[in-house]
Amino acid sequence: MSFLLQKRRGGGNSKRHLSNPGRSSNSFRRRSGEAGGQVQQMVHRPSAATATRQQPLQTVQNQQQNKQNQERQDGVISMAEVMEDLRVLEHQQKETEALLTNQKRLKKQKIETLASEEQALASSKYQNGEARAAVEKHRQILGDKTREILALEARRASGSDNLKRVDFKLTSALATGERIRSYRHKIDMTMLNLRNVAEKLDKQKQKSEVDLKNAEMRRDNTRHKENLLVKSIANFRSKANSLAEDVIRVKESIENYKTDRANAQHMEASTKFRVESIVAEIMSDRKRYEEV
User: Fold this and answer.
1) Domain count, the chain
2) Which of 122, 150, 160, 253 has its CA 20 to 30 A from that of 186?
């Protein structure tokens, strides 16, 4: 401010001399008159000694008075210029404050807009729901790369190559996220197929268990029949002498029962082999499922 006042004061003095030619001419005339008076005094010196002492004293007093009057006028003009400078500075300060207020308001609006956009983005990402772990990881990568982009934008004049590399990395990260989602979808489909296979195996196992229970029931029935036949044979043997014909029929029945027993044993063996094959197949499928 002092520099401005000095500049204004210096400029004001030159402007004052330019805008007030009458005052400048009067000052010049006054100074010329004073110089002329001094010359006249020097040329027409009185002979008396008292006149010689009084005239230079009056000239000095007149010069001092004129100088004081000139300084008063300069001081008044300088104060007016100072007030004008203060009004200009106050006007500039008001304009600066208004501009600063407008910038703050625009900044606040941008921050609110950015916050709303980020909230909408977070909501849409939350509603998406697919591959949350991968999306979260790449969201962090995206946040890091976004911060890197912001830092690179601040140094955009000297870091355009870095910005391109970060853009390439960001694009690669997004492509990686898409590939991860695709792999996750394939894994989900594979798991679904494995669940279907497991359900089929469970159904086959249940059916095999039912067949095994039926075979065991037939085996128990056959054993029960065998016991009954043994008892009948014992009874028939006790009555063999008197019941020869019955013995023949019993022998035929025994042969039939033996055939049934052989068939039952064969069925039991085949059922056991089938059950063991199914169990081995189930264990193989489970091992293959665990490996997947």
Assistant:
1) 2
2) 122
